[in-house]
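Example record for the data management plan.
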Amino acid sequence: MKIPLLSLLIAATLPGVAAFSVQAQSAAPSTAPSPLPAAIEDVLRHPTLAGARVGLLALTLPDRSVLVSRNAEDTFAPASVTKLFTTAAALWKLGSHYVWRTPIAYRGTKREGTIDGDLWILGRGAPDLVEERLWIAAQWLAEDGLTEVEGDIVVDDRYFAGNPYGQGWPGGRQVTEAYHAPISALMANYAAQRGDDGWNAVADPPVHFGTRLLALLGKAGVRVRGTVRRPDASELAAVPGPEFRGTGVGRESVPGPLVSLYDIDSEPLGRLVMDVNKFSNNVMAETVLRTLGAIEYGAPGTDTKGLAVVTEFLQDQLSVPLNSYIQADGSGLSPQNRFTPVQIVELLEYAERDFHVGPELLSSLKISGLDGWSPAPFKYAPLKGELRVKSGHIRGVNTLGGFLHTEHDQVIVFAFMINDHHAQQWEIDQRMAEMAVALIREF
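Corresponding structural encoding:
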Protein backbone atom coordinates (compact mmCIF):
# COMPACT_ATOMS: atom_id res chain seq x y z
CA MET A 1 0.00 0.00 0.00
CA LYS A 2 1.39 3.41 -0.95
CA ILE A 3 0.46 6.49 1.03
CA PRO A 4 -0.01 9.37 -1.44
CA LEU A 5 2.44 12.22 -1.05
CA LEU A 6 -0.48 14.64 -0.82
CA SER A 7 -1.61 12.87 2.37
CA LEU A 8 1.86 13.29 3.82
CA LEU A 9 1.82 17.00 3.11
CA ILE A 10 -1.64 17.44 4.64
CA ALA A 11 -0.59 15.51 7.71
CA ALA A 12 2.56 17.58 8.01
CA THR A 13 0.56 20.81 8.19
CA LEU A 14 -1.94 19.70 10.87
CA PRO A 15 -1.01 20.39 14.51
CA GLY A 16 -0.10 17.24 16.37
CA VAL A 17 -0.32 15.06 13.28
CA ALA A 18 2.89 13.36 12.24
CA ALA A 19 3.83 12.62 8.66
CA PHE A 20 3.97 8.89 7.97
CA SER A 21 4.78 6.44 5.23
CA VAL A 22 4.60 2.77 4.46
CA GLN A 23 7.83 0.91 3.74
CA ALA A 24 7.43 -2.70 2.73
CA GLN A 25 4.34 -3.62 4.77
CA SER A 26 5.01 -1.70 7.98
CA ALA A 27 4.31 1.93 8.82
CA ALA A 28 7.26 3.97 10.02
CA PRO A 29 6.27 7.16 11.84
CA SER A 30 8.27 10.31 11.33
CA THR A 31 8.10 13.70 12.97
CA ALA A 32 6.17 16.53 11.40
CA PRO A 33 8.51 18.95 9.65
CA SER A 34 9.65 22.15 11.34
CA PRO A 35 9.39 25.51 9.56
CA LEU A 36 11.79 26.06 6.72
CA PRO A 37 15.41 26.04 7.85
CA ALA A 38 16.63 29.56 8.57
CA ALA A 39 19.24 29.25 5.84
CA ILE A 40 16.54 28.56 3.23
CA GLU A 41 14.36 31.40 4.54
CA ASP A 42 17.38 33.67 4.09
CA VAL A 43 17.77 32.52 0.50
CA LEU A 44 14.11 33.20 -0.26
CA ARG A 45 14.53 36.78 0.98
CA HIS A 46 17.31 37.48 -1.49
CA PRO A 47 16.56 40.46 -3.82
CA THR A 48 16.97 38.28 -6.94
CA LEU A 49 13.80 36.41 -5.90
CA ALA A 50 11.69 39.52 -5.37
CA GLY A 51 8.32 38.89 -7.04
CA ALA A 52 9.19 35.32 -8.03
CA ARG A 53 6.96 32.31 -7.36
CA VAL A 54 8.75 29.55 -5.47
CA GLY A 55 7.78 25.91 -4.99
CA LEU A 56 9.87 23.64 -2.77
CA LEU A 57 9.61 20.08 -1.55
CA ALA A 58 12.20 17.87 0.14
CA LEU A 59 11.66 14.44 1.72
CA THR A 60 13.98 12.07 3.49
CA LEU A 61 14.47 8.58 2.11
CA PRO A 62 13.46 5.92 2.83
CA ASP A 63 11.04 7.13 5.53
CA ARG A 64 9.59 10.04 3.45
CA SER A 65 9.57 12.60 6.24
CA VAL A 66 8.70 16.03 4.88
CA LEU A 67 11.61 18.37 5.58
CA VAL A 68 10.78 21.33 3.38
CA SER A 69 7.46 22.24 1.77
CA ARG A 70 6.50 25.55 0.19
CA ASN A 71 3.74 25.73 -2.46
CA ALA A 72 4.47 22.07 -3.23
CA GLU A 73 1.05 21.43 -4.78
CA ASP A 74 1.07 24.53 -6.99
CA THR A 75 1.93 24.18 -10.66
CA PHE A 76 5.05 25.75 -12.11
CA ALA A 77 6.78 25.74 -15.47
CA PRO A 78 9.38 22.97 -15.09
CA ALA A 79 11.56 23.82 -18.12
CA SER A 80 13.84 20.87 -18.97
CA VAL A 81 12.84 18.83 -15.93
CA THR A 82 9.94 17.93 -18.27
CA LYS A 83 12.39 15.57 -19.98
CA LEU A 84 12.21 13.25 -16.96
CA PHE A 85 8.51 12.62 -17.59
CA THR A 86 9.07 12.05 -21.31
CA THR A 87 11.99 9.64 -20.88
CA ALA A 88 10.33 7.79 -18.00
CA ALA A 89 7.28 7.17 -20.19
CA ALA A 90 9.52 5.95 -23.02
CA LEU A 91 11.37 3.52 -20.76
CA TRP A 92 8.04 2.29 -19.41
CA LYS A 93 6.47 1.80 -22.83
CA LEU A 94 9.44 0.69 -24.96
CA GLY A 95 11.92 -0.76 -22.49
CA SER A 96 15.56 0.19 -22.12
CA HIS A 97 16.52 -2.25 -24.90
CA TYR A 98 14.56 -0.45 -27.66
CA VAL A 99 16.66 0.36 -30.74
CA TRP A 100 15.73 2.68 -33.63
CA ARG A 101 16.50 1.26 -37.07
CA THR A 102 16.87 3.57 -40.08
CA PRO A 103 16.59 1.60 -43.34
CA ILE A 104 18.71 2.36 -46.40
CA ALA A 105 17.09 0.96 -49.55
CA TYR A 106 17.08 1.48 -53.29
CA ARG A 107 14.57 1.73 -56.09
CA GLY A 108 15.59 0.39 -59.48
CA THR A 109 18.03 -2.39 -60.28
CA LYS A 110 21.37 -3.37 -58.78
CA ARG A 111 24.12 -5.04 -60.75
CA GLU A 112 27.81 -5.52 -59.99
CA GLY A 113 27.93 -2.81 -57.35
CA THR A 114 25.96 -0.23 -59.33
CA ILE A 115 22.44 0.90 -58.47
CA ASP A 116 20.59 1.96 -61.60
CA GLY A 117 18.13 4.11 -59.72
CA ASP A 118 17.88 6.03 -56.46
CA LEU A 119 19.15 5.38 -52.96
CA TRP A 120 16.38 5.92 -50.38
CA ILE A 121 16.83 6.76 -46.70
CA LEU A 122 13.71 6.03 -44.63
CA GLY A 123 13.61 8.14 -41.50
CA ARG A 124 12.29 6.33 -38.43
CA GLY A 125 12.93 8.96 -35.78
CA ALA A 126 16.36 7.86 -34.57
CA PRO A 127 17.65 10.52 -32.16
CA ASP A 128 21.38 9.76 -32.42
CA LEU A 129 22.30 9.70 -36.10
CA VAL A 130 25.56 11.57 -35.68
CA GLU A 131 28.43 11.73 -38.15
CA GLU A 132 30.08 8.55 -36.87
CA ARG A 133 26.97 6.44 -37.53
CA LEU A 134 26.64 7.81 -41.04
CA TRP A 135 30.31 7.05 -41.68
CA ILE A 136 29.85 3.46 -40.50
CA ALA A 137 26.87 3.11 -42.86
CA ALA A 138 28.83 4.54 -45.79
CA GLN A 139 31.76 2.21 -45.13
CA TRP A 140 29.48 -0.81 -44.81
CA LEU A 141 27.81 -0.07 -48.16
CA ALA A 142 31.23 0.29 -49.80
CA GLU A 143 32.56 -2.89 -48.25
CA ASP A 144 29.40 -4.70 -49.39
CA GLY A 145 30.40 -3.89 -52.94
CA LEU A 146 28.45 -0.72 -53.72
CA THR A 147 30.52 1.52 -55.98
CA GLU A 148 28.04 3.76 -57.78
CA VAL A 149 24.50 5.15 -57.58
CA GLU A 150 23.23 6.37 -60.93
CA GLY A 151 20.35 8.31 -59.42
CA ASP A 152 19.74 10.50 -56.39
CA ILE A 153 19.69 10.16 -52.63
CA VAL A 154 16.02 10.40 -51.71
CA VAL A 155 15.24 11.33 -48.10
CA ASP A 156 11.83 10.21 -46.78
CA ASP A 157 10.79 11.54 -43.37
CA ARG A 158 7.08 10.63 -43.44
CA TYR A 159 7.36 8.67 -40.17
CA PHE A 160 6.72 11.97 -38.33
CA ALA A 161 4.18 14.63 -39.21
CA GLY A 162 2.87 17.92 -37.90
CA ASN A 163 4.58 21.03 -36.61
CA PRO A 164 8.37 20.55 -36.52
CA TYR A 165 8.49 22.67 -33.36
CA GLY A 166 6.93 22.05 -29.98
CA GLN A 167 3.77 23.78 -28.83
CA GLY A 168 4.54 27.24 -27.53
CA TRP A 169 8.21 27.20 -28.51
CA PRO A 170 9.67 30.70 -28.75
CA GLY A 171 10.22 32.09 -32.22
CA GLY A 172 12.36 34.95 -33.43
CA ARG A 173 16.10 34.51 -33.71
CA GLN A 174 15.98 31.47 -31.43
CA VAL A 175 14.84 29.27 -34.32
CA THR A 176 18.40 29.44 -35.62
CA GLU A 177 19.86 28.08 -32.37
CA ALA A 178 20.81 24.39 -32.24
CA TYR A 179 18.65 23.79 -29.14
CA HIS A 180 15.61 25.03 -31.14
CA ALA A 181 16.18 22.87 -34.25
CA PRO A 182 13.13 21.61 -36.19
CA ILE A 183 12.14 18.03 -35.43
CA SER A 184 12.11 15.44 -38.21
CA ALA A 185 12.06 11.66 -38.50
CA LEU A 186 15.40 11.90 -40.33
CA MET A 187 18.10 14.06 -38.78
CA ALA A 188 21.88 14.09 -38.75
CA ASN A 189 23.86 15.64 -35.90
CA TYR A 190 20.70 16.66 -34.05
CA ALA A 191 19.59 18.79 -37.03
CA ALA A 192 22.47 21.18 -36.43
CA GLN A 193 25.65 22.18 -38.23
CA ARG A 194 28.71 24.17 -37.26
CA GLY A 195 28.84 27.75 -38.48
CA ASP A 196 31.11 30.73 -37.92
CA ASP A 197 29.37 31.46 -34.62
CA GLY A 198 29.03 27.89 -33.31
CA TRP A 199 26.35 25.25 -33.87
CA ASN A 200 23.16 26.38 -35.63
CA ALA A 201 19.88 24.68 -36.53
CA VAL A 202 19.50 23.50 -40.11
CA ALA A 203 16.46 24.56 -42.13
CA ASP A 204 15.71 21.15 -43.69
CA PRO A 205 16.88 18.23 -41.50
CA PRO A 206 16.25 15.37 -44.01
CA VAL A 207 18.11 17.15 -46.81
CA HIS A 208 20.92 17.95 -44.39
CA PHE A 209 21.06 14.25 -43.50
CA GLY A 210 21.28 13.28 -47.15
CA THR A 211 23.96 15.87 -47.81
CA ARG A 212 26.13 14.53 -45.00
CA LEU A 213 25.64 10.92 -46.15
CA LEU A 214 26.47 11.92 -49.73
CA ALA A 215 29.77 13.42 -48.59
CA LEU A 216 30.67 10.35 -46.53
CA LEU A 217 29.75 7.94 -49.32
CA GLY A 218 32.18 9.83 -51.51
CA LYS A 219 34.93 9.44 -48.92
CA ALA A 220 34.17 5.73 -48.71
CA GLY A 221 34.55 5.36 -52.49
CA VAL A 222 30.87 5.27 -53.52
CA ARG A 223 30.02 7.67 -56.34
CA VAL A 224 26.55 9.20 -56.43
CA ARG A 225 25.80 10.84 -59.76
CA GLY A 226 22.64 12.62 -58.65
CA THR A 227 21.71 15.02 -55.87
CA VAL A 228 19.92 14.93 -52.51
CA ARG A 229 16.19 15.51 -52.66
CA ARG A 230 12.84 14.68 -51.15
CA PRO A 231 10.51 12.26 -53.00
CA ASP A 232 8.28 13.87 -55.62
CA ALA A 233 4.52 13.42 -55.87
CA SER A 234 4.68 10.40 -58.14
CA GLU A 235 7.18 8.66 -55.86
CA LEU A 236 5.08 9.40 -52.79
CA ALA A 237 2.19 7.70 -54.56
CA ALA A 238 4.28 4.72 -55.63
CA VAL A 239 6.11 4.13 -52.33
CA PRO A 240 3.66 3.69 -49.44
CA GLY A 241 4.21 5.74 -46.32
CA PRO A 242 4.76 4.08 -42.94
CA GLU A 243 1.24 3.45 -41.70
CA PHE A 244 2.28 0.68 -39.32
CA ARG A 245 2.45 0.79 -35.55
CA GLY A 246 4.74 -1.12 -33.23
CA THR A 247 8.50 -1.39 -32.96
CA GLY A 248 9.32 -3.19 -36.23
CA VAL A 249 10.74 -0.20 -38.07
CA GLY A 250 13.84 -1.67 -39.71
CA ARG A 251 14.27 -3.53 -42.98
CA GLU A 252 11.00 -5.38 -42.39
CA SER A 253 9.21 -2.06 -42.73
CA VAL A 254 10.69 -1.21 -46.14
CA PRO A 255 7.74 -0.98 -48.58
CA GLY A 256 7.80 -2.19 -52.18
CA PRO A 257 9.00 -1.17 -54.71
CA LEU A 258 12.05 -0.42 -52.52
CA VAL A 259 14.70 -3.08 -51.82
CA SER A 260 16.43 -3.06 -48.45
CA LEU A 261 20.22 -2.67 -48.25
CA TYR A 262 21.16 -1.81 -44.67
CA ASP A 263 19.79 -0.65 -41.31
CA ILE A 264 21.52 2.06 -39.29
CA ASP A 265 20.97 0.98 -35.69
CA SER A 266 20.83 3.49 -32.85
CA GLU A 267 22.16 3.01 -29.36
CA PRO A 268 19.56 1.41 -27.05
CA LEU A 269 17.03 3.74 -25.46
CA GLY A 270 18.46 3.08 -22.00
CA ARG A 271 21.79 4.49 -23.15
CA LEU A 272 20.29 7.44 -25.05
CA VAL A 273 18.24 8.55 -22.05
CA MET A 274 21.56 9.51 -20.46
CA ASP A 275 22.33 11.90 -23.32
CA VAL A 276 18.82 13.35 -23.25
CA ASN A 277 18.89 14.21 -19.54
CA LYS A 278 22.54 14.77 -18.67
CA PHE A 279 22.99 17.19 -21.58
CA SER A 280 19.33 18.31 -21.78
CA ASN A 281 19.07 17.61 -25.50
CA ASN A 282 15.78 19.10 -26.71
CA VAL A 283 15.91 17.51 -30.17
CA MET A 284 16.41 14.02 -28.76
CA ALA A 285 13.56 14.46 -26.27
CA GLU A 286 11.17 15.55 -29.02
CA THR A 287 12.09 12.63 -31.29
CA VAL A 288 11.51 10.24 -28.38
CA LEU A 289 8.08 11.81 -27.84
CA ARG A 290 7.04 11.48 -31.49
CA THR A 291 8.41 7.95 -31.67
CA LEU A 292 6.18 7.01 -28.74
CA GLY A 293 3.20 8.35 -30.66
CA ALA A 294 4.08 6.46 -33.84
CA ILE A 295 4.63 3.16 -32.06
CA GLU A 296 1.55 3.32 -29.84
CA TYR A 297 -0.96 4.94 -32.20
CA GLY A 298 0.53 4.33 -35.65
CA ALA A 299 2.66 6.41 -37.97
CA PRO A 300 2.99 9.20 -38.60
CA GLY A 301 4.13 10.10 -35.11
CA THR A 302 3.14 13.49 -33.76
CA ASP A 303 3.68 15.36 -30.54
CA THR A 304 -0.02 14.98 -29.71
CA LYS A 305 0.13 11.19 -30.02
CA GLY A 306 3.31 11.09 -27.96
CA LEU A 307 1.83 13.25 -25.22
CA ALA A 308 -1.09 10.83 -25.01
CA VAL A 309 1.39 8.06 -24.16
CA VAL A 310 2.99 10.19 -21.44
CA THR A 311 -0.50 10.86 -20.06
CA GLU A 312 -1.13 7.11 -19.96
CA PHE A 313 2.12 6.63 -18.03
CA LEU A 314 1.33 9.38 -15.53
CA GLN A 315 -2.13 8.03 -14.83
CA ASP A 316 -1.25 4.33 -14.84
CA GLN A 317 2.02 4.46 -12.89
CA LEU A 318 1.83 7.63 -10.78
CA SER A 319 -1.96 8.18 -10.48
CA VAL A 320 -1.50 11.79 -11.57
CA PRO A 321 -4.94 13.32 -12.28
CA LEU A 322 -5.36 14.53 -15.84
CA ASN A 323 -6.38 18.03 -14.72
CA SER A 324 -3.45 18.55 -12.37
CA TYR A 325 -0.67 19.25 -14.88
CA ILE A 326 0.00 20.46 -18.42
CA GLN A 327 2.55 18.94 -20.78
CA ALA A 328 2.88 20.73 -24.09
CA ASP A 329 6.09 19.23 -25.47
CA GLY A 330 8.67 16.57 -24.74
CA SER A 331 11.65 18.73 -23.87
CA GLY A 332 10.40 21.51 -21.61
CA LEU A 333 11.33 24.32 -23.97
CA SER A 334 7.66 25.34 -24.06
CA PRO A 335 6.63 27.79 -21.32
CA GLN A 336 3.15 26.21 -21.40
CA ASN A 337 4.26 23.13 -19.39
CA ARG A 338 3.08 22.95 -15.78
CA PHE A 339 3.98 20.42 -13.08
CA THR A 340 4.10 20.55 -9.29
CA PRO A 341 7.03 19.87 -6.95
CA VAL A 342 4.96 16.95 -5.60
CA GLN A 343 4.72 15.37 -9.06
CA ILE A 344 8.44 15.68 -9.70
CA VAL A 345 9.26 14.10 -6.35
CA GLU A 346 6.74 11.31 -6.93
CA LEU A 347 8.33 10.57 -10.31
CA LEU A 348 11.77 10.35 -8.70
CA GLU A 349 10.44 8.07 -5.95
CA TYR A 350 8.80 5.89 -8.59
CA ALA A 351 12.10 5.60 -10.43
CA GLU A 352 13.86 4.59 -7.24
CA ARG A 353 11.58 1.60 -6.74
CA ASP A 354 10.77 0.51 -10.33
CA PHE A 355 13.19 -2.05 -11.75
CA HIS A 356 12.42 -1.47 -15.45
CA VAL A 357 12.41 2.33 -15.50
CA GLY A 358 14.46 3.34 -12.49
CA PRO A 359 18.05 2.21 -13.21
CA GLU A 360 18.27 3.99 -16.55
CA LEU A 361 16.29 7.07 -15.49
CA LEU A 362 18.30 7.58 -12.31
CA SER A 363 21.60 7.04 -14.10
CA SER A 364 20.58 9.78 -16.55
CA LEU A 365 20.62 12.38 -13.76
CA LYS A 366 23.64 14.66 -13.71
CA ILE A 367 26.24 14.10 -11.03
CA SER A 368 26.77 17.60 -9.69
CA GLY A 369 30.01 19.10 -10.93
CA LEU A 370 31.19 15.88 -12.56
CA ASP A 371 29.19 15.31 -15.75
CA GLY A 372 26.57 16.88 -17.94
CA TRP A 373 26.27 20.65 -17.64
CA SER A 374 26.60 22.00 -14.09
CA PRO A 375 26.34 25.68 -13.09
CA ALA A 376 29.48 26.98 -11.39
CA PRO A 377 28.27 26.71 -7.75
CA PHE A 378 27.69 22.96 -8.14
CA LYS A 379 31.27 22.29 -9.21
CA TYR A 380 32.74 22.79 -5.75
CA ALA A 381 32.35 21.40 -2.23
CA PRO A 382 30.02 20.74 -0.54
CA LEU A 383 27.86 20.20 -3.65
CA LYS A 384 30.32 18.52 -6.02
CA GLY A 385 29.43 14.85 -6.36
CA GLU A 386 26.70 14.99 -3.71
CA LEU A 387 23.67 15.57 -5.97
CA ARG A 388 22.02 13.54 -8.73
CA VAL A 389 19.82 16.06 -10.51
CA LYS A 390 17.97 17.29 -13.58
CA SER A 391 17.93 21.03 -14.04
CA GLY A 392 15.84 23.27 -16.24
CA HIS A 393 16.21 26.81 -17.59
CA ILE A 394 14.00 28.96 -19.79
CA ARG A 395 13.31 32.68 -19.52
CA GLY A 396 12.12 33.49 -16.00
CA VAL A 397 12.25 29.81 -14.98
CA ASN A 398 14.84 27.78 -13.05
CA THR A 399 14.12 24.29 -11.76
CA LEU A 400 16.13 21.58 -10.06
CA GLY A 401 14.99 18.12 -9.01
CA GLY A 402 16.75 15.00 -7.84
CA PHE A 403 18.55 13.50 -4.87
CA LEU A 404 21.21 14.79 -2.53
CA HIS A 405 23.42 13.22 0.13
CA THR A 406 23.81 15.19 3.35
CA GLU A 407 26.74 15.60 5.71
CA HIS A 408 24.80 13.43 8.18
CA ASP A 409 24.58 10.55 5.67
CA GLN A 410 20.92 11.20 4.85
CA VAL A 411 19.47 10.85 1.33
CA ILE A 412 16.92 13.49 0.37
CA VAL A 413 14.70 13.64 -2.70
CA PHE A 414 13.72 17.18 -3.64
CA ALA A 415 12.29 19.59 -6.19
CA PHE A 416 13.02 23.33 -6.35
CA MET A 417 10.90 25.35 -8.80
CA ILE A 418 11.32 29.11 -9.29
CA ASN A 419 9.12 30.94 -11.82
CA ASP A 420 8.55 34.55 -12.85
CA HIS A 421 11.91 35.83 -11.70
CA HIS A 422 13.59 38.77 -13.41
CA ALA A 423 17.20 37.92 -12.60
CA GLN A 424 19.89 36.31 -14.68
CA GLN A 425 19.68 32.51 -14.71
CA TRP A 426 23.12 32.17 -13.14
CA GLU A 427 21.91 34.26 -10.21
CA ILE A 428 18.97 31.92 -9.62
CA ASP A 429 21.26 28.92 -10.01
CA GLN A 430 23.21 30.43 -7.13
CA ARG A 431 20.02 30.53 -5.01
CA MET A 432 19.34 26.89 -5.91
CA ALA A 433 22.86 25.98 -4.84
CA GLU A 434 22.45 27.85 -1.54
CA MET A 435 19.26 25.93 -0.75
CA ALA A 436 20.96 22.64 -1.61
CA VAL A 437 23.85 23.52 0.71
CA ALA A 438 21.34 24.28 3.48
CA LEU A 439 19.81 20.82 3.09
CA ILE A 440 23.22 19.15 3.03
CA ARG A 441 24.33 20.87 6.23
CA GLU A 442 21.01 20.98 8.13
CA PHE A 443 20.00 17.35 7.73
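Summary line stored alongside the record: The longest helix spans residues 425-442.
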